[in-house]
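Troubleshooting: if your tokenizer reports a length mismatch, compare your output against this known-good record of 638 residues.
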Amino acid sequence: MGWKRAIVLGSVQFLMIAHFVQWYLSGRTLSPVEPSEAMATLKDGIVNTGTVLFAIALLSTVVLGRWFCGWGCHVIMLQDLCAWMLGKVGIRPKPFRSRLLMFVPLALALYMFVWPVVYRIAIAPYVRPDLKWPGFTTNFIVTDYWQSMPGVLMAIPFLFVCGFLIVYLLGAKGYCTYACPYGGFFAPLDEYAIGRIRVTSDCEHCGHCTSVCTSNVRVHEEVRDFGMVVNPGCMKCMDCVSACPNDALYFGFGKPAALAKPRGDAPPAARSYDLTTKEEFAFAAVAFVVFMSVRGTLGVTLPLLFASGVTACVTFAAWKAWRTLRDENVNFHRWRLRTHGSMKPAGFAWLAMTSVVMLLAVGSAAVNTMGFAAVWLDDRITLPPEVVFSGNPVVLDPPLVQTAERAIALYGAASGIRAGGISILPVAQGTIDMRRAWLLSCLGRYEEAEPMLRQTIERDGTNERTAAALGRVLRGQRRYDEAVAWYEVTTAAHPEWRDLQEEYVLWLTAEARTVEAITAARSALARRPDELMYMRRLSLALMQLGAGPEIEEGIQLTDRTLEIAPNNPFAYRALSEAYFRLGKLDESEGAMRKALELAPDDWRIKQALGELLIGVGKAEEGAPILHEARQRGVTSSP
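Known-good structure output:
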């Protein structure tokens, strides 16, 4: 069946490439047909193509068994290709067998697909009361197809490690057995599948089936002992069926593996494993350290599926190094690592390589652990930026001061060596410096935050986040003229930085620097005259801060924005307020009614209409509207 399955898996690859090309050429396409996309459904209620695919795969597994892995997974194709290529040069990787590490896929699956639900239901009500369930929506057609996927520089090493290297080290289907989170669900469901590889009385237990199985299943023993294949690693590739010289094997429906009982009086053949019980726990700990070393917030950060593959490979290398030190004779494929107690050059090389990798892993795990702790402490400082950088910041309570200082210290320790930390491997130094500068600002230590940000800008260049942070620190020190100069230079150099421009104008507005606010908004629109956001910001500045002709100009500009985006209730509300300032009460009322028509459930707009009607002498109509709005406002408040 190998050539048939190769055609099917090759077709899957072709469809994936065609999907990408169609999106690249048209700009719109189906959302990624990838099971991990189902996480968006569990976290945010967004049903997409990946959700449908994963649901179909799971439900069909209960009937057909673990077929999707063998016939629909592109990583399986890479693993089979690697095994085939190695076979051509005379290498057949021996399967690595561990009892405890086989639960890694299940742990990853629970983390990806169960933890979000548990967090939202059992934890968020206490720590994130603002996290409300948004309800279910659909998102089958997207324009940002590649948003949730890694870039090419990450994808190529992922395919090499998880499609090739892991097979060379751990044997065929090594990634499926020890790293794939989807297999964490497929394997348990396979236990209850009624579709299985079964046997007739023509079986002679010759072992041909086991010799061709690429899923490392001892087929001849299982059909002898149970009358069917019960191992959940079986991916229904059908190679064993086609290889049977007596046609004794077939795919059929009947009793699931969970209800299978041994045939005859003899006990089933015991499964053999490569690790002792003590080694199982020891190398489970090694796997945890390695996983932490590549899954961080500040240090080395690999995508989950890539991280799990790297973890499996490094854990195997560590186990083989241990066995090289312990055992008299150790081989790896054609390499003799140790013979009759004598260490060979390949053995020394393996030990040296593994030692370096493990030292880096331990260091990276320490950095990532400190990073997790720093972020956890950092998240407890919830001051609004407008308070921190107001020029009159609040004084934190002593416990929060200690929390901020501990987070700053942990961020510092997690930094690179050149920045005074312990990390040898690259870290997100820019992010670390930004967070330290924020915490220093919360403590009122702007004079320490400023040089840190300037050093970051000098080292990494200016981006929108660092530009905004430096502007805020200058404002916090009441160096307003310098802040204005900084905003002017950076917004002029980067007119595409919309958030920075918005923050600049809002700050000038809050500081009652009316002329400067209007001038800044006008300059932004002049640089990008077709930018809708800049039109809106200037129109609001003119209508709210201007007088006479400026208000009229703002109204005209708002009308222009409504030609581009006509269903904006907040634009009509702003128009209503502008007309009211000009004394045009009928136009003001008409604009507010239009706003309420577009947003009938917004109690704030309803309240504004009620107040307007009362203000123009229509109290009988306005009072009930105002009363209803205030009641809605009370019920909608947290």
